Amino acid sequence: MNSTLDIMLWVVVPYVSIAVFVVGHVWRYRYDKFGWTTRSSQLYENRLLRLGSPLFHFGILLVVLGHVAGLLIPESWTEAVGVSETAYHAVAASLGILAGLCTLAGAAILVYRRRTVGPVFSATTRNDKVMYVLLVGTIVLGLGTTILGNLTGDPHNYRETVSPWFRSLFYADPQPQLMAAAPLGFQLHVIAAWILFAFWPFSRLVHVFSLPLGYLTRPYIVYRSRDDQLGNRRPRRGWERVG
Amino acid sequence: MKIMAQMAMVMNLDKCIGCHTCSVTCKQAWTNRSGVEYVWFNNVETRPGQGYPRTYEDQDRWRGGWTLNARGRLRLRGGGRLRKLLTIFSNPKLPALDDYYEPWTYDYDTLISAPAQQHTPVARPRSLISGKPTGITWSANWDDDLGGAPELARHDPLLRGIEDKVRFEFEQTFMFYLPRICEHCLNPSCAASCPSGAIYKRSEDGIVLVDQDRCRGWRMCVSGCPYKKVYFNHRTGKAEKCTFCFPRVEVGIPTVCAETCVGRLRYIGLVLYDADRVLAAASTPDEHDLLDAQRDLLLDPTDPHVRREAERAGIPHDWLDAAARSPVHALINTYRVALPLHPEYRTMPMVWYIPPLSPVVDVVRDTGHDGEHHTTLFAAIDALRIPVDYLARLFTAGDPEPVNQVLRRLAAMRSYLRDINLGREPDESIPDAVGMTGEELYDLYRLLALAKYDERYVIPPAHAEQAHGLEELATECSLDYEGGPGMGGSGPFGETSGGPTPIAVENFHMLRDRQKADRVNLLNWDGRGNPVPPKDKP
C-alpha cells in the first residue's frame, strides 16, 4: 500500500509539474513571444562566456541524451540486444559523469561570471537567480548521486526503479512504490527536477525549445510579404484588404 | 524573371557637412531606449577613420558578408549553417561593447543636490551599463573631423598598404563624412546568418526587418552583417536594426534621417530588380565586376517589357510610375554617378553614394589653381591618386576607374554650369569629355543642386493606406485596442492579446487633414477677431 506521502511525491507532484510545463509553455508562447529569447549577455563579457557557455551547453545536451536513454529505453530492450547491465552501467556511468562534470564546470564558470562581472550581475533578474538555484541544484544532486553511488562499489540500478516509474507516469498507470524504493539521492534529484520543470516555462530556459534546427534546411534569404496593415496592427474586422 | 521593387537611397557625400542631425533624429525616433543606448541605426563617420563599431570593415577579423569558395560558389564568410549551429553557444565573432563604446549619462542630480561648498559641483559621467562612474574614452564618432587622427586614423582598415602615403598633418590631409544606415541589401547576409529565420526581406519594398517575435537572440546576424548595422539589444535580448522608417515610408513620407538632413543630400526612390539574378550577380568572380553586376541587376523602369513583367509580378501601377521617376535609379544607372558601399561584401547593398569631389577641389584650390575649371580638375583627379584610391576602396572594391569616371562627371558638371551661370557660352566639349550631353549634365545638376522635396523623395505609399487611414475614424469602440477593456476578437483571450504594442505611427496626411479641418490654431492668432475660422454656410 502506498503512503499518502509517496502518492503526493511520486504521482501528484509529477503530474502537476508536467501540466504546468506543457500549459505554461503554450501560454508563454502565445502571450510572450517577445520575451522568448536566450537573453545573451555576451555583449557584456566574452572571455569567461567563451569557455563556460559551450562547456555547459554541450555538456547538458549529452546529459539530456543520457537521460533519454536511461529513462525511456527499458532494461529488457538493451538486454535483448545483448548488452549486460554491468556493461551498460559502466558506459552510462563513465559518459554520464564526464558529461555531468563538463556541465557543472561550465555552470560554475557561468555563475562565477554572473556574480563577479558587474554588468552581467546587474542584468540578472530574480527569476534568473531562482532558475540558477534550481538548475544547478538539480545537476549537483544528480551528479552527486551518480558519483557517490559508484563510489560504494554497488551502484543502484535505477533502470529497475526510477525508469519504470517514470514511464508509468506516461502510461497513466503511476507506480509510486517503485520510486519510493529508490535511494534518497535519486529521490531528491527527481523532486528537484520536477520543481525545475514547473518553473521552466516562466524562466529564460524556454530558449531550449528554440534550438534552430530548421536553419539547416531553410533557404538563406527569407522573403515575407508585408502584413495587410500599416504599422503593426491587424486591420479591424471589416477593413481587411481586398486581394 | 521575377521582378521585385526595392526602396533604395542615394547620399551625395559632397553635401554632407558632418552635422550628425540624421544620427540624432534617428536616435530620438528609434533608439533612445534602454538596451540600445549604444546603438545608432544611422551614424556619420569621418573618413579616413575607424568607423563605428571600430574597424568594422576589417572582414579578415569580423568575417561578415559573403565570399566565394574554391569552387566559385557564394558562401557566408563567417561559415556555413553547421558551423553557425556549433558556435551558437558563444558567438566567436561578436563585437564587444568596447568596439562600439560604453554608453554613459551624467550624474546631473549632483548639480542640484550637492551641499553648499567652495567649488562648483560637477556632473560626473556614469556608465549606463554598470551604473558606476566611468571615464569616457570612446564614442560612436570619437574620431570626428579627424580628431586624434595621427594615432587613430591609421587603424582604418581601408588604409592598409597605403598608410605611409596618407598624411594626417592638418594641412595635408583630406577627409569627408560618410553617413551610414542599414543597406537593405538585395542579398542580405544578416538574414542568411539568422538561425531562427527572424530577419526577412519584405517582398513589396525590399526593406530588411527583424521579426521581434521570432528573434531568439542568437546574435549571428550581428556577425553576419559586414556593415555591422544589426545591433543586439542587451535589455530585451533581441536583434534590432534600421527599419528604413517603414511606418513613415508606407504612408509616402521619407525616413527620419532623410527628412531632417540639413544638407538635403539624401534621395529616396524605388528601383526594380530581377530577384532571380541576384545570386548570379553576387557570385561574380572578379570583385571589380561586382559594381557593374549590381548596376545591371537594376532594371530600366521605362522599358515596356520590364513594366509588363513587373505588373505580372503584382507591382501596382503607381509604384511603376514612381520607379520611373525614381531619383535613385537616375543617379545609379542614368547618370551613373552613385556607387554602392563595399560591393566586395557581395550583399548587393541598396544605399548608394555619390563620392565626394571636394577632397580634389580643396587640393586644387589650395595650390592656387582654378578649382572650378574642368581641365585643372580632370588633371587633378588623375594626379591625386590617394583620395581616389581611398574612395575606390570604399565604393568599388579598389578599382579606381569607376570612381574616376564619377569624379570627372561631377567636375564636368561644375565647370559646365559655371559657364551657364556666368552667362557665357556653354562649352559643349566638357560634357563630351565625360560621355554625356549638355542637357544630361544640366539635368544632373538640377537633381543634385535644385531638386525639391518631391523630386528627392519619390515614395509611393503602400497599398494598405486606406485601412490605416480608416483606423483612426471613430467608427468603433475607443477602448477596442490591444489589451484594452473593449478588446474584441476571436481568440479565447481576444484575437490580438499578447501581441506587440503598436508603433505610434504618425500619419502625416491625416495629421495635416485634421489640422486643416476644424481645429482652433492659436499659434497664428493675433489676438483680434475670432480665432475659429468661420465655417462655410451649407
Structural description of this entry:
The complex is a heterodimer of chains A (243) and B (538). Chain A is mostly helical and 243 residues long. Chain A has one domain: Transmembrane di-heme cytochromes, Chain C (Fumarate Reductase Cytochrome B subunit, Up-down Bundle), CATH 1.20.950.20. Chain A is built from nine helices and one strand. In chain A, helix 1 runs parallel beside helix 9, helix 2 packs antiparallel against helix 4 and helix 4 runs antiparallel to helix 6. Chain B is an alpha+beta fold and 538 residues long. Chain B has a domain of 355 residues: 2-Layer Sandwich (Alpha-Beta Plaits), CATH 3.30.70. In chain B, 33% of the residues lie in helices and 12% in strands. In chain B, strands 13-12-1-15-14 form a five-stranded mixed sheet, sandwiched between helices. In chain B, helix 16 crosses helix 17. The termini of chain B are far apart. In chain B, 46% of the residues are buried. At the A-B interface, helix 2, helix 5 and strand 1 of A face helix 3, strand 8 and helix 23 of B. Chain B: Pfam families: Fer4_11, Nitr_red_bet_C. Chain B: One of its GO terms (biological process) is anaerobic respiration. Chain B: Keywords: 4Fe-4S, Electron transport, Iron, Iron-sulfur, Metal-binding, Repeat, Transport. Chain B: Its cofactor is [4Fe-4S] cluster; [3Fe-4S] cluster.
Concise account of the structure shown:
Chain B: It comes from Actinophytocola xinjiangensis. The complex is a heterodimer of chains A (243) and B (538). Chain A has 243 residues and is mostly helical.
